[in-house]
Amino acid sequence: MAEPLHALTALGHAAPKSLAIGPVAISERFDVALASLAIRNGRDGDVAAAAGKAGLPLPDPARFQAGTPFSAFWVAPGMWFVEAAFETHEDIEAALKPIFAGAASITEQTDAWVRFDLGAPDLQPLFERLSNVDFARSPDGFATRTVIEHIGCYLIRHGKGAVTLYGPRSSAASLLHALEVTARSLL
Amino acid sequence: MIIHHPILGPRDSQEFVYLGDASLMNRPDGLTAGIEAFHDYLYNRDNPAGEHRELWYHEQGDRSWLVVTRNTVTHEIVRVELARDVAKAAGRTK
Amino acid sequence: MTQQNRISGGQIDRSRTLRFTFDGVAYAGHPGDTLASALLANGVRLMGRSFKYHRPRGPLSAGSEEPNALVELRAGARQEPNTRATVAELFDGLEARSQNRWPSLAFDALAINDRLNTFFTAGFYYKTFMWPASFWEKVYEPIIRRAAGLGSLSRQEDPDSYDKGFLHCDLIVIGAGPAGLMAALAAGRAGARVILADEDFRPGGRLNAETLTVGGKPGAEWAAEAAAELSAMPNVRIMLRTTVIGAFDHGIYGAVERVSDHLPVPPEGKPRQTLWRIYARRALLAGGATERPIAFENNDRPGIMLAGAMRTYANRYAVRVGESCAIFTNNDDGLRTATDLQAKGVDVVAVIDARSEGALLPGIRHLKGADVIDADGRLGLRSITIRHAGGRTETVPVTALGVSGGWNPNVNIASHHRARPVWNEGIQAFVPGEGGPPGLSAAGAAAGVMSTHGALTSGQQAAMAALGDLGIRASAGTVPDAEDAPVSITPKWYVNSGKGRAWIDPQNDVTVKDIKLAHKENFTSVEHMKRYTTLGMATDQGKTGNVLGLAIMAGLTGQTIPETGTTVYRPPYTPVAMGALAGRSRGKEFKPFRLTPSHKWAEEQGAVFVEVGMWLRTQWLPKPGETHWRQSVDREVLATRKSVGICDVTTLGKIDIQGTDAGAFLDRVYCNTFSTLAVGRCRYGLMLREDGMVFDDGTTARMGENEYVMTTTTANAVTVFRHLEYCRQVLWPEMDVQLISTTEAWAQFSVAGPNARRLLQKVVDQDISDAAFPYMAAGSITIGGLRARLFRISFSGELAYEIAVPTRYGDALIRRLVEEGREFDAVVYGTEALGVMRVEKGHVAGNELNGQSTALNMGLGKMVSKKKDSIGMVLSQREGMNDPDGYRLVGVKPVDPTATLTAGSHFLEIGAAPVIANDGGWLTSKVHSPHLGCDIALGYLKAGDQKIGRRMRAVNLLAGTETEVEIVSPHFFDPEGERLRG
Questions:
Q1: B14–A62 C-beta distance less than 8 A
Q2: Could you list the residue ranges that cross the membrane (chain C) (predicted)?
């Protein structure tokens, strides 16, 4: 068998990048596996039961819910993105498929996205310049798709000072640039 | 414009893609309907000054196709529904 | 120079002195000054030239309505034309220049236009530059272009950045005068989320310009205290230097914040301006009112300004416009200027009051029933001529004249949804009408409530009504004491005296005469009058002059003003810099980039990249010694065909389609059949639009019983996904189908060429012999245990595969393929070589998938199954799209192998004239085939399938080329497909 292939982060490095601009900390996350989970027609009950048994949350629309080993956020009617630790669940699709046994369509999404975790005492000034989301009035656990400098992203608000952003992996550098420039304009 | 998404609440119309008249939902069956019927379906439109039902797609959102009833004179949006629900209610089975 | 016209008081910081220059002359001012107030303090009244007549002009106003005092600010790349000196905040080192004059402001050669004014009347352009037609391009246009425009551009890139942002609020209050402050206080105290925006750098509005008291203290002090209270509220955001430029549908307001315009250079990292998109549940227009003049002969002399502006300069900026002044008014507000100036020790020579009735001002020469009929002093006012009530005229020397014809509520934003303002007889002005932006109301002077107490009260009431709509309870606080004088005005629009010109719109040089001419020529509707005379079409949009024009027209037609009506306003309220609209989307930041998984490796190799949508793809990879792109591309093609080539094809759209109806769904979206495809196999699919034209194509693989992976073209990845969601949700909601894009989740490489299998076998863990993995096989494999996918498909005509790994391993995989490929002399090829090989093989791509071509045109007509319903199947059968002599895809070769082909050339029979009637079709894609050693092309040719072997001409009249060609099969290379099955 051939040698294993090495992995690169979306920004093109062996290790994820972290930086701080004033009060804003931006951390690339490379350790989260991601899969989409979509209910097959008429299988809502089966999916709910299977998810319940596996301890996999299926939060309401526009919500994120943490869990172990799986967390999830809503992306579309009957569809969620499921997160798990990359180290234990690299092949997250293979891990989820047996749980749902054909009641849900499951697709690996890990490398379709770049993930940045943002931290600051208050991220409102940053996000009012990046996105049309009403960040100040959004509850903790709010999850939505939004556009940041022409880039379609998922934004999860864990708190007023903690946000997870998922952006398209190919645009990782452009997205980070937008975050950096905006954070710098607040100094 | 603001579109009140039935699931997500008010969202900026910049997040949506506009398709056109919601009559596009009523696609004839290709195995039974002829060219005439398809021609009418694809090209013939009413152009009302007033309430107009139209299809919008929440591309930068939850990817729902919506039926938006908009007054073409005032731009007031009087109703927004999930197109899937409208299509199912209309008994579309093909 | 000394600030000889600086007087006592004012809201300027005298402890600091700011140095600045105007037309190279050095002056001094103070923080709190505008450029206009500082120039006036230094005795400079002449600040600009008018657009058409190049008349010398000074400021008419002290605000954003300014038509005259337009200057160029700053130097070098930051030079900005048409900046209003009346709102430009003074800073130390400011450089300003006058514009629209040559050689100097005091002596302007084009002022000759003023002497020729009988020639330059309304409709001048329409009448003058009509004949002869041949003169237009060579004579008229160059002259007009040279004369047109006010300031000049730096012609350098703007060194500053601009930003955009989004805000949300319960109530946006537009204007921080007494009404706006009171409204914001009421809403803020009730806990509502409030934005209070004002274009000024100091909150207070007219309170800063008046000596009136509010709650027993000076109005400016009350305003400062109110602003301080609001600033302390976490739910209130005060945005100064912020102009609300428009009301858009459903409570969206646009606002431009001038973040750094008051500084010499924006601080590091800060934008110069920010364009805010404000989502407001309710809005309150408290934008105040704008004063209007009374037109009389030569009323545009520098030193003549609006009476309220003169008061602003005195009270706020501690500046007298001249050492001796007079006031011309038809209303009580004008009298305030006289008393305020006199209290400041300015010599008020006379008050010319057009009204006959009313009390006289004590201690001032107050002339009742009198008019100003003329003014003298070309570069600065020297005297005015008064016509007394009895008709006697008198010339009085003055250096400043304040004129008040009444105040127009700033209804602009209230009419942004086409609402017509309505005439209010009591104040002789238009107020907001019905049908304005839903959720927006007006208060204070903007609503026609002109007293200070009225403004405070109406601001509070309007805020409470708005909050009531939102279910937010607010308690009515006490309204502070303030003056509550009624409006006393007798309409007067212009003074009918001699034959001279009386200006209505000073920037565009529209005079009373022009209105009369428009009337005589029957351009009497307000919309016609506006366009015929250009009234209100300058940068100030007629904020001071429009009402005069239509009132005069009303008088001429014998109609009332309400019958005459008014034009409505459109956004923006004041001019907006293009940079603010563009935001950060400039240059390299115009749009985001998308990088492929092999980008880092390709960059290391010195690859040349090409933009494909937002993607940056490798176009070719030059080797040392290659100096022309053709050398690199030819080498890549030949090496691939000889041995093996590798290409990053990640950019192709990939859509994961699952569900128990996935196969049936694909049968409906593709014109050919997929439900019968075996698991572990893939098939080429052709997707039509409902009108029967080809939409997209690609390969779709069946990965499991209910799982397919579709590929789309790079260009249509997004639109195909949107279309599939439409089919799934709108057309066939009963089908069990789930979709998700996986374009970016997998790094995918094409490995093509006779040695493709040998190379891949070294990399993958499974047996991929022809028996184990035949042509069009697809499936999951592993690379060193890592999950991967393999598809045996070919775009090049070679034995070829596409191999995919999770994207993070893409960089490693291309390095592995290159390394393991050394023994085969493997190359990595870019999009150019890809294009060459697909043309050699006769595959259609973007140039052929042009939205106007059918499957039949492409030679793929048989793919459209009529046994099942699919999108486009029915309408593709239309007669006109099935013409046996219609376009067919053909191959094209030059008869002389050394001749070049030009893409876009049209096919003509030998000897046929190059006219549209003889047009046989066109050449869509052209490449140089190193394999065949000549240029080759694809094209659409009428009845092309019947013309194989024929000689024709490929003519390109734009490029000036003509080549004799042979029409051949589009399959230049291995037409039997033996290589790809090898």
A1: no
A2: none
Q: What is the mean pLDDT of residues C874-884?
A: 96
Q: Which CATH class is domain A32-110?
A: alpha beta
Interval C240-264: pLDDT, tens: 999 999 999 999 999 999 999 999 9
- β-bridge mates for residue C197, sequence order: C174, C239
Task: Name the neighbours of A, counting chains with at least 3 Cβ pairs within 8 A.
Answer: B, C
CA-based nearest distance A145→chain C, Å: 15
Total of domains in chain B: 1
Residue whose tokens read 């603010």: C580
| Residue C808 exposure: Cα atoms within 13 Å on the Cβ side | 25
DSSP label at residue C587 = G
- Residues C803 and C597: their CA atoms lie apart, in Å, by 13
Tokens of A55: 């301890």
In this structure, what CATH number is given to the domain that contains residue B31?
A: 3.30.2270.10
Is residue C143's pLDDT more than 70? no
Distance CA C678, CA C774 (A): 13
Task: Give the pLDDT band (50/70/90) at residue C111.
Answer: confident
**One domain for residues C204 and C227:** yes
What residues of B are in contact with residue A147 (Cβ under 8 Å)? 14-15, 60
CA angle C958, C960, C962 (to 5 degrees): 115
Subunits with 3+ C-beta pairs closer than 8 A to C: A, B
Residue type, C648: D
Q: Distances in Å between the alpha carbon of C557 and those of C178, C516, C518, C565, C702?
A: 39, 10, 11, 12, 78
Judge if C719 and C642 occupy the same domain.
no
Q: Name residue C349's amino acid.
A: V
CB C190 within 8 A of CB C467: yes
Which of B5, B60, B86, B92 best probes binding to A when mutated, by most A CB atoms within 10 angstroms? B60
Count helices and strands (H / E) in chain A.
Answer: 5, 11
Mark yes or no for CB contact B8/A132 under 8 Å.
no
DSSP, res C63 = S
Average pLDDT score, chain C: 94
Report the candidate in C762, C777, C797 with the shortest Cα–Cα distance to residue C640: C797
CB contact under 8 A, A145 and B64: no
Indicate if C707 and C732 belong to the same structural domain. Answer: yes
Nearest chain A residue (CA) to C745: A112
Nearest-angstrom CA–CA distance, A28 and A17: 5
Q: Is C418 in CB contact (< 8 Å) with chain B?
A: no
Among candidates B27, B31, B64 on the partner chain, residue whose Cβ is nearest the Cβ of C731: B27
pLDDT tens sequence for chain B (94 residues): 999 999 999 999 999 999 999 999 999 999 999 999 999 999 999 999 999 999 999 999 999 999 999 999 999 999 999 999 999 998 765 4
Q: Residue window 49-68, chain B: list those with CB within 8 Å of chain A.
A: 59-64
The amino acid present at C537, given as its one-letter code, is M
C-alpha closest to that of C284 among C423, C477, C445: C445
Question: Is this prediction's ipTM beyond 0.95?
Answer: yes
A42 interaction partners in chain B (CB closer than 8 Å): none
For domain A18-30+112-185, give the CATH number: 3.30.1360.120
pLDDT value at A185 more than 80 = yes
Contact C264, C93 (CB under 8 A): yes
| pLDDT at residue A100 greater than cutoff 80 | yes
Q: How far apart, in whole angstroms, are the C-alpha atoms of residue C396 and residue C367?
A: 13
Tell me the H-state helices in chain A: 44-54, 86-89, 92-100, 124-127, 172-185
In angstroms, what separates the C-alpha of A182 from chain B's closest C-alpha?
A: 21
Overall number of domains in chain C: 7
Domain that holds residue C700: 653-741
Which pLDDT value is given to residue C815? Answer: 98
The whole domain housing B47 covers: 2-89
User: HSE on the CB side for C75, CA within 13 Å?
Assistant: 10
